[in-house]
Design a protein that fits this description.
Length: 666
């Protein structure tokens, strides 16, 4: 048992500032203080990142065990300056000897390990079959549940009618011809929200949203009179037509809005309306605003008239939204009812697994991973775990979802309320790099935890880059220190400013020189550049840099997997001397060239594979194959693979397909 005081810590770390380095040394510090790996849980959000954490721990321990200078550096980093090589060698031996007890992995894997240990308590089958949230297996399960909804054996005609009505409410103004596809997308979009809050009483609860009532819900009064008064006031003002025309559109659209019409286009994202709302038109007697950089002012009568019109518009829209929200819950609740038997059978997604460990799990009365019993019928799982997790380390915390946090929240709460100094919580991340909102990541959790436990969590900031040189960091600072007011919403800029710190480069560790440039692709005509033209511009940059000749590696960052695939195809065509790897999901086996080469390899491995042989005979390779005896071909191909490898085989036989040079697909 460690006697050292180990405090909880939050590190807000910018890109390249050493997040994994800090987490690895935190882990080493715990090991050096005689904390066993079975009592430490280090988690992140991908297997690759978890592997990097493990590799980093072993690498730093190995270096410190063999190099006195690195031993001194590591000892200083973990606040144990007296440790020497022999000490780190002993720590490394103990760590490797207890690998079977270490907990370094993903949050999902931790959740699954708990569920596999306690299936009966959680009310599920021991035969657990996990599916990716967005994968094909999960989609088939959704379709299976939706098929039950429209099957009279499972759902009565009355219930089906109620389901249709709820769906109409939930999708008002967004009608879709393909009902099945629309429902499938709908479930994907809202399922995690339902898992977080399955209680229907908490959906569309007006007094919870507006405890003191909403100003937008007041009676609008005589709309015709309000519209006439506003139109008359504009005539008296004698403002330019370019201002009165949009104001009249706004007023008339607000007056004409009903419960059966969709939100009017003249008002959606309208800059004038945004100014009126920001200036609190629902309460002010006069209102100053600007249009085309010129100042104007609404008087008391105009404000009164617009207030009545906006009360109609936004009041009805709020009621529509509340009705839609109730419809959404009704659909999800019915879906959950029919999905529950499938989940209990053990077929579930990773988010379902997390759901089972939250208070929402009705079967166990709210299964909680917690030590402190403070309510009846709750399952306190860690009482029965083989090991007690006293130290938590979480990497890339900005990508943690609300559902994931709900799984471990009580454990962390227990740790942060412990005053012994023998338990700790360490999390590191960068809210500026929160790119996984699409899969539920909630970057605001980082600050929320600090607000709740600020007195017991030490906050540190890392803003020095060990990855990028000074010109790159300077460009980043110039771009992001003062965001463009025209392009970025004021609320976004305000939140960004609260998280932004100017970066610096650790020049001892990064290249001394570097270049930053913005290059625009040249379109073939006056229109915007298409994808091919942009990719061509990238190829030209690579040809200028000549990375192969200079012994350099080059990374190209892209927004989507599809763009990655497209740019890789273009670069392989324009820069054939470069060895290019696409790190992303890309299906290459839908390409006829690839399928032919796969058939070639299949035939080599299984000469009796008639389908592969017939495929080769129908391909351009047949002319080459006719010259070789069928019985000799497999052995010849296997020998070629043995002597030169698969890449050589693919290049040689791919070249014999005689593709045209401009055939990018091939």
């Amino acid at each position: 048992m460690s006697t050292a005081q180990i405090n909880s810590q939050a590190i807000l770390a910018s890109a390249g500032s050493g997040k994994t380095y800090k987490l690895a040394h935190r882990y080493i510090r715990l090991l050096a203080n005689n904390v066993g790996p079975n009592r430490i849980c280090a988690v992140t959000f991908s297997r690759k990142a978890a592997g990097e954490i493990f590799d980093s721990i072993v690498r730093h321990l190995s270096d410190a065990a063999t190099d006195p200078e690195k031993a001194a550096d590591t000892a200083s980093e973990i606040d144990l300056p007296k440790l020497q090589c022999s000490d780190f060698l002993e720590i490394l031996r103990r760590f490797l000897a207890e690998l079977h007890q270490e907990h370094i992995g993903t949050l999902d894997s931790f959740t699954v390990s708990v569920i596999r240990s306690f299936p009966q308590e959680l009310g599920i089958s021991t035969d657990l079959q996990l599916m990716d949230n967005g994968g094909a297996a999960a989609r088939l399960v959704r379709q299976e549940v939706l098929a039950r909804i429209f099957n009279n054996r499972h759902v009565t005609a009355t219930e089906q009618h109620e389901f249709h009505e709820a769906f109409k409410q939930a999708t008002f103004g967004k009608e879709e011809k393909n009902l099945e596809r629309s429902l499938d997308l709908f479930i994907q979009d809202y399922w995690e929200r339902y898992q977080l809050t399955p209680d229907g009483e908490k959906w569309a609860k007006e007094n919870a949203i507006w405890p003191n009532g909403s100003p937008w819900q007041a009676e609008p009064g005589d709309l015709d009179a309000a519209l006439a008064a506003f139109e008359s006031s504009l005539e008296e003002k004698q403002w330019p037509t370019r201002l009165t025309a949009p104001l009249l559109k706004i007023a008339r659209a607000a007056a004409a809005h009903t419960t059966h019409t969709v939100f009017p286009d003249p008002i959606a994202n309208n800059k004038l309306v945004k100014q009126f709302i920001a200036a609190d038109i629902m309460h002010c007697e006069s209102l100053d605003f600007s249009y085309y950089n010129k100042p104007y002012s609404l008087d008391a009568e105009q404000c009164k008239a617009l207030r009545a019109l906006f009360n109609n518009l936004f009041g009805l829209e709020i009621q529509n939204s509340l009705r839609q929200t109730r419809g959404i819950w009704a659909i999800l609740d019915r879906y959950n009812e029919l999905y529950d038997p499938i989940r209990r059978s053990g077929r579930m997604t990773f988010s379902d697994a997390q759901y089972l460990l939250t208070a929402a799990n009705d079967y166990s009365g709210g299964a909680m991973v917690s030590r402190r019993p403070n309510a009846e019928r709750r399952l306190y799982i860690d009482y029965r775990l083989d090991c007690k997790l006293d130290h938590w380390l979480i990497d890339e915390f900005q990508d943690t979802s609300d559902l994931q946090w709900e799984v471990i929240r009580n454990l962390i709460d227990e740790i942060l309320q412990n005053e012994s100094g023998q338990r700790s919580f360490f999390y590191v991340g960068d809210v500026k790099q929160a790119i996984h909102r699409w899969r539920g990541g909630n970057a605001r959790l980082f600050a929320r935890i600090l607000e709740q436990y600020g007195t017991v969590i030490e906050k540190k900031t890392l803003s020095s880059s060990y990855r990028s040189c000074t010109p790159i960091i300077t460009a980043v600072n110039e771009i992001f220190t003062n965001l463009d007011e025209e392009l970025v919403d004021p609320d976004v800029r305000r939140e960004w400013a609260g998280n932004w710190e100017s970066h610096s480069a650790e020049e001892e560790f990064v290249p001394k020189t570097g270049t930053f440039a913005v290059i625009e692709a040249t379109p073939d005509n006056d229109d915007e550049c298409n994808a091919r033209e942009r990719y061509h511009a990238v190829a030209q940059v690579l040809k200028t840099i000549k990375p192969i000749e200079k012994g350099l590696t080059t990374a190209i960052l892209v927004p989507t997997h599809a763009v990655g695939k497209g740019i890789v195809d273009q670069l392989r065509f324009e820069c054939p001397s470069l060895r290019i790897t696409h790190e992303g999901r890309a299906q290459i086996n839908d390409n006829p060239v690839v399928s032919v080469l796969l058939s070639l390899i299949k035939f080599a491995a299984h000469p009796g594979d008639t389908l592969a042989r017939r495929h080769l005979q129908m391909s351009p390779l047949n002319k080459q194959l006719e010259k070789i005896d069928r019985d000799d071909l497999p052995l010849m191909l296997l020998r070629e693979i043995q002597d030169h490898g698969f890449e050589h085989l693919a290049r040689q036989w791919g070249g014999r397909l005689q593709l045209k040079k401009d055939d990018l697909f091939g």
